[in-house]
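Entry type: protein chain
Record version: 2
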Amino acid sequence: MSESRYDIGMKTRRSVLGDAHVDRASKNITEIDEGFQRYITENVWNGVWTSDKFTKRERSIVTIALLAGLGHEEELAMHIRATLNTGATRDDIREALMHVAVYAGVPAANTAFRIAKQAYAEIDAASKGE
């Protein structure tokens, strides 16, 4: 029996965002957002993130640039933390955010760099056991 779109999407979501994040998010689902959560799992995590046209690293870089340019700070921080799972490096993200400065504006990039520095500081602290 083949896996459902939801199951494939959930595997992909976990591989990018990590089990801890997905478990926390799943515990917070209510009747208000249950349909939305199913939609993004089946269509974003199964549909977009499973395409073989980009690697997870490339998709991560594009996603971060778009989130930064659009000012979606919470999602940006989440996807910067997800680079631990996608293979996008700090150099990749720095270059993507420089593109944001040119094509989306310096204020958007300034905010994104602040968020990236904070996310990487948290990652570094966690890796040192702080």
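Comment: The two ends are 45 Å apart (CA to CA).
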